[in-house]
Amino acid sequence: MARPRAAGLCLAILCAVSLLATTPAAAAPEGTLTFALHFSPVTRWLDPAEGESTITPFLLLYALHDGLLKPMPGSGTAPSLAESWSMSKDGLSAEFILRPGIKFHNGEPITSDDVKFSFERYRGGAAKILKDTVKEIQLLGPNRLRFVLKEPWPDFPAFYGTFVASAGWVVPRKYVERVGEEGFRKAPIGAGPYKFVSFNPGVELVLEAFEGYWRKTPSIKRLVFRSLPDETTRAAALKSGEVDVAFLLSGPTAEDIRRTPGLRLVAPLLGIFWLDFPDQWDPKSPWADRRVRLAASLAIDRQALSQAETLGLSRPTGSLVPRDFEFALPIDAPAHDPRRARQLLAEAGHPNGFDGGEMTPFPPYNSMGETIVGWLQAVGIRTRMRTLERGAFMTSWREKKLHGVVLTVTGVSGNAATRLESFVTKNGAFAFGALPEVDDLFRRQAREMDRKKREALLFQMQRILNEQATQAPVYHLGFPTGLGPRVEDILAHAIPGFYMSPYEDLKLKKP
Q1: Domain identity same for 278 and 259
Q2: CA angle at residue 458 from 457 to 459, to 5 degrees?
Q3: How many of the other CB atoms lie within 10 Å of CB of 383?
């Protein structure tokens, strides 16, 4: 009887081997995808602890790191390192369960202790509101933890699990403590689809596929982010095949790429541009008069600017909040009306105009800034261009060192509350000042559990900002991006408000 059983076992083994031989193995990553960046990354943007509540650092963080929750195709807040999560009915706590077997790039397991450490280490743009509201983090096991809040806060997942903040993006505690803060920034270890290879500031960042990524192994072996701040240089590199994706191609340059055989142009909707007036909070400044701020807004021809800068792909708006956001109050852009602008300036005591100080545009949107300088000049507001490199601009903005007029943009995601917090509330990371009634409305809506009541509070808040012209919204940016012939697709609209689909989903065409 032993022989037939042995024969059967051998046959089973042979069948299994045959089946394995005919089943295709998962293809190993291959090839290199090169991006031409419109800015020069700085070292701190490789560290989630430094996330500045703007979309720019997430272009790099999304490849190198991973969060408990993050925006994904089809969801603004999707479980990632968290297998599941839930908010308590009273809004006072949130519980997370980590996926089994997930690891950092150095092979260390990701634990709830790493999650707690990463949150406590976070010092980015939304640090104050998060840390003022989180009472404690309870470790319930190696893969389970609970955030306990000081008061009901329905927006906790919107701040913690979107592009509002990177406090939920997890780094390895043991590694950080071993190499120190500076050592981590020089050689970051993450949990994302790509791992760090090298970074030459001002030149390029190189990442390599992490084959142990929990979601799937990326199909592309290497990603190279090359710093090419000059637009014509980016376009030339795309045409020559030196790069595969070129970000931010405006006006004639974008049109040339669109007409070039073998190249394509896509335009995801990213952030909203606006003019901010830092000196409006100084009662002695001309900018303290609402009529002056409104005059500056009426001086702008938003549709003409969209056509000149983005081939008409940007959408003029009267609000900092995109229309498709939850709790957004739709506000149309004011019409271009230079005659009314001059009249308002005269009513405010400036019939011959006035010196409006510096105009500092968000880098590298200098041509946009120059155009607006011309429109302001035409109605009597005289400003002087001041250009900065992206990292220096972000530092000056956050440290409240800018004056005059600031042309800026934000891609902060979430909802109306998360979009506005950084820019119009007293404790906002980039707010130069705040209206007391706006601050009060923000505090009230933050703890309001009834959705309809909360919506009413946020609508009221947006109406006040519009009526007082504390900012001059310009347009929702259509971000022209050139694609080379080797790129299958970057799915530019896969994740609303982001540049493309998840990096692990990107593919190169077969030769």
Answers
A1: no
A2: 90
A3: 20
* Digit-coded pLDDT (tens) for 26-79: 578 999 999 999 989 889 999 999 887 788 899 999 999 999 999 999 888 999
Looking at residue 496, what is its pLDDT? 86
Residue 121, pLDDT above cutoff 70? yes
Q: Pairing mode, if any, of strands 245-246 and 32-37?
A: parallel
| Residues 97, 140: Cα–Cα separation, whole Å | 9
* Same structural domain, 296 and 434: yes
Same domain, 318 and 385: yes
**DSSP one-letter code for 39:** S
CA angle 469, 471, 473 (to 5 degrees): 105
Same domain, 459 and 321: yes
Residue numbers of the domain that contains 134:
66-172
Number of helices (H), then strands (E), in the chain: 16, 21
What is the tally of structural domains in the chain? Answer: 3
Q: What is the pLDDT of residues 72-115, one digit of tens each?
A: 998 889 999 999 999 999 999 999 999 999 999 999 999 999 99
Please tell me the distance from the alpha carbon of residue 392 to that of residue 399, in angstroms, as a whole number.
11
Q: How far apart are alpha carbons 437 and 461 in whole angstroms?
A: 8
Q: What is the pLDDT of residues 396-410, one digit of tens each?
A: 999 999 999 999 999
pLDDT digits (tens, 9 = 90+) for 339-356: 999 999 999 999 999 999
Q: Show the tokens assigned to 215.
A: 């979601």
Q: What is the pLDDT of residue 174?
A: 97
Residue 104 inside a domain? The answer is yes
| Amino acid identity at 102 | I
**SS3 category, 239:** helix
CA-CA distance, 148 to 464, in Å (whole number)?
33
**d(C-alpha 375, C-alpha 381), whole Å:** 9
Residue pair 436/139 in contact (Cβ under 8 Å)? The answer is no
Mapped to the 3 state alphabet, what secondary structure does 46-107 carry? HCHHHCCCCCCCHHHHHHHCCECEEEECCEEEEECCEEEEEECCCCCEEEEEECCCCECCCC
Q: Are residues 223 and 275 in the same domain?
A: no
What is d(CA 5, CA 22) in angstroms, rounded to the nearest whole number?
26
Judge whether 312 lies within some domain.
Answer: yes
pLDDT at 26: 58
Tracing tokens 């968290």 back to the chain, one arrives at: 82
pLDDT > 70: percent of the chain: 95
Q: What angle do CA 34, 35, 36 make, to 5 degrees?
A: 125
User: In terms of domains, do 263 and 334 share one?
Assistant: no
